[in-house]
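Re-running the complex after MR caught last week's input typo. The corrected sequence lines follow. Everything else is unchanged.
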Amino acid sequence: MKSFEILDHTADIGIAGWGISLPELFVHMAQGLFFLIADPPAISNSFETLVEGEGNDYEDLLVTWLNELLYVYDAEQVYLQGFEIEEIGQYFIKSRVMGVPLHTLSKPVKRTVKACTYYATKVEESIPGVWKAEVYFDI
Amino acid sequence: MSEIWNGPFRRIDNWRWMIPREYKKGMLTDGLIYASEKMIADIRKDQAPEQVANVACLPGIVGCSLAMPDIHWGYGFPIGGVAATTGEEGVISPGGVGFDINCGVRVIKTNLMIEEVATQKERLLAILFQNIPSGVGSEGKIRFSIPDLKKVMKQGARAVLEKGFGWGEDSTFIEENGAMEGVDSGAVSDKAIERGKDQLGTLGSGNHFLEVEVVERIFHPVAARAFGLFPGQVIVMMHTGSRGFGHQICTDHLHVMQNATKRYGITIPDRQLACVPFCSSEGEHYFTAMAAAANYAWANRQLITHWIRESFEKIFQKSAHNLGMHILYDVAHNIAKVEKYTVKGKIVQLCVHRKGATRSLGPNRSEVPETYRHVGQPVLIPGDMGTGSYILVGTAQAEQESFGSTCHGAGRVMSRSEADRKSRGRNIVQEMREKGILVMAESTATLREEISEAYKDVGEVIEVVENAGLAQRVAYAKPMAVMKG
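Corrected-run output:
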């Protein structure tokens, strides 16, 4: 099973992701998001923070959490590459995320991701034991 | 790629195509797309027309759900979408503005001729690149304190003008005079402030750019004279917005509205269209925060204007005043504004959402600077980096038909991954140089995503809006030097 793949869109970019559990799915979606921003660097993480989010349902939770990660990226200027989901329910997520300062990346950042949109967002257990999600980002 | 859209288009005339309200349950009005027959085939290639139909479901929508000929698939609204809602029962939707609040275009004139600049363009571009922070994660050259930033939220361009970044006359030549009124900075989250505080005075990346252009053709001599444009003249066009500050404000309010939409009993076909009554606490909260971001964007473009002037002064060894570096105009193309239009014979106050659309007011409107008022408002339309830009003038017909709106650019036709595939192995900088256009970019990935083929022909877009009467061509300008983030 792939962890994620890119979905084409005329002006923006989407990500489809899979996981054997909801936490794994969320981690793969976050990896997909940061893959759009830059290639993961081969350096160990020097930044760590807690990221929490609330939502009405899994879709809202995923969009909200990915937007929280984008906030950390933009405000702290860090590339995130480690994601540990500590708690996840239908309405709440608590995670620990790790990364490296942007200026330490060896390759330049590929593009700005402005935000994660709610457009055509899906989170579902497509077959028992396989979770799937899709989101589109504003580029 | 997205599926082909198979819904109905009813041809009204050569430039107007209707999606009848019967197409989809929940549509409160018809959809209306401005396009040529040739364009309509491309427009069907993705889900942009479905998004026009979705916008037609917004409570309180007045007239049609409109889309300009640069329409393409967005999220929530299509890019190129325009919707007006009533002040009383109508809604406001952050998805009708987008994340880059007050993304817009500004043109600065010069009295320099092409011959004077052609020999200096390498030096000029290098110094612009050095003076104006650009690219992903770029930080501004000036530190703004929180009280300073709050002043920017309220006073827009005027807040930085007071600090010496520009001329007294500048704000006259900016839509809304560079600031929307009535901003309460309390409606802006700490996160937006944190994200925006270091990004004021930065160009950004993606499709944001700065171009040195030469006016190649004049179509409307009277308006060109009023705007101070003539053939062979060098002008500077910039395209940027409210950076991370605006993105966070949209994110914050969309999140709030996911709940609020249901609470107000509103049903929407796409969650990105989350909306609340304009006259509700959530609606007012969003509108004032959006206005703060709009004002931030005008301050951003003002700071960049100052550094453009400084760069020209250094290269041409004359003051910016002597170089005639006046602002032609500054337009917002991602915004919601309260404006008055005549609907069914009555003057009504509406909330006009423009998502990738430009205000296009005709003659004799008090919102337009006095020097232009007899001809109408300048409308600034960039093409792709290899083509050229158009300067248009607004029309009374646009006021009657499209809530004073017209197109905003060329509009993408190719996805970013497709552009990446098509440009693999090519030297885009060299290709542009062969066309006589010098390009400097922070990122080659951005350049490859922004290749000319990724966009519609801006000339075709302009042909449609002119034939439909939504704006008139005044001048065409060709790029000489392009700075990309």
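None of the earlier attempt is carried over here. The mean pLDDT of chain B is 95. Residues 145 and 197 of chain B are 8 Å apart (CA to CA).
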